[in-house]
Amino acid sequence: MSDHTGATSTNAPPPGCPAHASAVQLGGLEYQQTPSQLYRTMRREHGSVAPVLLDGDIPAWLVLGYPEVCYVTSHDELFARDSRRWNQWPNIPPDWPLMPFVGHQPSVLFTEAQEHQRRAGVITQALEGVDQFELARECQAIAEQLISSFAGSGQAELMSTYAHVLPARAVLWMCGVPQGRADTEKLVDDLRISLDAGEGDDPVAAYMRVGARIAELVKEKRENPGPDVTSRMLLDPAGLTDEEIVQDLISVIAAAQQPTANWICNTLRLLLTDERFAVNVSGGRVSVGDALNEVLWLDTPTQNFIGRWAVRDTQLGGRLIREGDCLVLGLAAANTDPQIWPESHVGAENSAHLSFSNGEHRCPYPAPLLADVMARTAVETLLERLPDLVLAVETEKLTWRPSIWMRGLTSLPVQFTPAVQ
């Protein structure tokens, strides 16, 4: 979500809220490198629901426990998605860094009850129309093209030249955006900037350009529909307005692009640094599948998700949650909850992780399957084309982005035998 980690303030937290003297500041170096240790400490000191401070010392609750995250996401009548319920709005400045993620928008993300079912149903139907074999072929073609652009040099930085670009192109293809055009490449770049801004980037301006281009796409497909997600949403009998479709398409594209990019890169990192995968990493499909699933448990791309808002005073994990309090879903912490993994053993053999969330507001089926097609194809194609791929730096030199929301590397430099084109 945001790479703004927040500075510690000496101001007292606003009254009548969960923050108190022991509230944990969400951000800092621990989050950047070893968030799992921080979660363990927080769980030991606070239990399964911890008082935390967001940017600018805004109080919230971080839900760390697996059962508690499942409870919150399964009880929309107690913990709702409409952020206008928040009791902290009087203390939130208009330029607050997390405003893009909590400021109410007319998208499926903030809808509730029947309206959410209507909007999510349209997305589900549209995604179900995607042929997974066709998507895999398209992803392979995109992968081959990207790999060919750097294969002859013997070195590459995979985060920016591969992992970010492939899912962006793939999801735009699914939505019916023409491939290969200059404006499509610009849209791919703006997507990256709006979701994962680097030094000197303007994410707000990039987000506005993305919105304008998707609005154009909806208008084009309204006049000339095709076999794509956008057209299926427009033709759905639920009769969404163009503005609703634009908002929901942006949500779909954003959810597909950055988390999948980090899933690809985190999996490549695991394959290239863990000796368990070294023996048969070259085109080893079983290993790739194991690595993809293990990453969802241990280095899930979406670490934390903001959030849910309490509909009324209630109890959770022994805490009194007040009406209007904000709850941050600690997906990464829940995935490694010792209650479900005794003796600290996290097994990758099942897929009951919360990486795609849970309940009514989880990623709509079949989005996780489509993300898996993108990530698996990206990793397997790269390893098949460049079988002697190795890290270009020592493992400990790899750095994580300073984000409490997304778990992703700043870069993944690699080297390999240059391939003759």
Average pLDDT score:
87
Shape: globular
Q: Would you tell me which CATH topology applies?
A: Cytochrome p450
Give a quick account of the main beta sheet: strands, pairing sense, barrel closure.
6 strands, mixed
Q: What's the multimeric state?
A: single chain
Provide the helix percentage.
40-55%
How are the strands of the largest sheet arranged? 1-2-3-9-6-4
Q: Measured on Cα atoms, how large is the radius of gyration?
A: 21 Å
CATH superfamily: Cytochrome P450
Class, according to the CATH hierarchy? Mainly Alpha
> What CATH architecture would you give?
Orthogonal Bundle
- Based on helices, strands and strand pairing, what is the structural class? alpha+beta
- Count of distinct strands: 11
Termini gap: 38 Å
The secondary-structure element order is EHHEEHEHHHEHHHHHHHEEEEHHEE
Number of helices: 15
The domain tally reads 1
In the predicted model, the low-confidence regions spanning at least 5 consecutive residues are 1-16
Task: Describe the overall structure.
The chain has 421 residues and is of the alpha+beta class. The chain has one domain (24-415): Cytochrome P450 (Cytochrome p450, Orthogonal Bundle), CATH 1.10.630. Helix content is 46%, strand content 10%. It contains 15 helices and eleven strands. The chain has helices at residues 29-33, 35-46, 66-74, 99-102, 113-128, 132-150, 158-163, 165-174, 182-195, 203-223, 229-235, 242-273, 285-298, 331-335, 367-385, and strands spanning 24-25, 49-54, 58-63, 79-80, 155-157, 305-310, 314-316, 319-321, 326-329, 390-391, 413-415. The chain has a six-stranded mixed sheet with strand order 1-2-3-9-6-4. A three-stranded antiparallel sheet has the order 5-11-10. The protein has a two-stranded antiparallel sheet with strand order 7-8. A hairpin with a 2-residue loop joins strand 7 and strand 8. The longest helix is centred in the middle third of the chain and has 32 residues, at 242-273. The radius of gyration is 21 Å and the shape is globular.
